[in-house]
Amino acid sequence: MKTVRVIDSHTAGEPTRVVVEGGPDLGSGDLATRREIFRRDFDHFRSGVVNEPRGSDVIVGALLSEPVDRSCAAGVIFFNNVGVIGMCGHGTIGVAVTLAHLGRIEPGIHRIETPVGAVSVELHDKHRVTVANVPSYRHAADVSLNVPGFPKTTGDIAWGGNWFFLVESPGIEISLPNIERLGGFARAVRAALEQQGIRGEDGATIDHIEVYEPLEAAGKGARNFVLCPGGAYDRSPCGTGTSAKLACLHARGELEPDEPWRQQSVIGTVFDASYAMGEHGRVLPRITGNAYVTAESTLIFDEADPLRFGMCGAGR
Length: 316
Ligand code: PYC
Known about the structure:
The protein is α+β, with helices and mostly antiparallel strands. It has helices at about 30-40, 45-50, 90-100, 180-195, 240-250, and strands spanning about 1-10, 15-20, 60-65, 75-80, 85, 110-115, 115-125, 130, 135-145, 155-160, 165-170, 210-215, 220-225, 260-265, 270-275, 285-300. An eight-stranded mixed barrel has the order 1-2-3-4-6-7-8-16, surrounded by four helices. β10 (about 155-160) and β11 form a beta hairpin. The longest helix has 17 residues, at about 180-195. The radius of gyration is 19 Å and the shape is globular. The protein starts with a strand and ends in a 15-residue tail after the last strand. Pyrrole-2-carboxylate binds near residues 60, 234 and 239.
């Protein structure tokens, strides 16, 4: 009977499940190599940790791994209900709060290694964290898209640690009662991108769709609905999505370095954000949010259980 120790938290409503013990041996290569081994050989483990019946479509998993760079407090590989992901902003905030809960870090600045580069986190107290995310940039502006059933749509393509298509809402208010309609629009946008061959740099799949509207509040901000690759919507304002948004705002000349930006999720939770200028015109996003530990658990993988590797991994 295999057991896996996990700590659950939520960041602005979006859950993170950190695997702290019992994960697979991925060797001692860099985090990108380990992520590839995880993707290739341990997909059943990924599915078992986050998918039903133990988890749900919404949970993002974070596998703690020894960092290659010893100046980092931890290495981490993020994954979701359908596969591995490059970086995860809400997840990094959740990992920092989890490391603090375990007594592995104290308030202050720490580095965390991910497959897309090291990010730095500042733990302000046991709940509040600022993530200095990977350099982010707008790849293409005002891309036209035919989305069947909707007026002609244009949006920006940007990298914030994942690939995003950012598009203004076609008149659907971004609020919980409209979740189904927002999901329908975002799924139609994603299908249109696929069908029209619109991709990120080097042909990368654009797997996150960010639908936004202005936030009527003091200062500058937006409210968003983010469709994640596995079909769930982000309950948080999405850290990598906020980073992609900052890159677009900078490229449009609509937000200056260090100017505060407020990103609100569809459930009403908030990330406070700003950016500094990096190299080659890329922005260095800073995303601040709160996370709370919700459970410490031992997952049991009973060999007699046909669904021990989750509904997607059943029978493996
Ligand atoms: O916060 O970056 C994020 C994120 C990505 C997918 C879900 N949350």
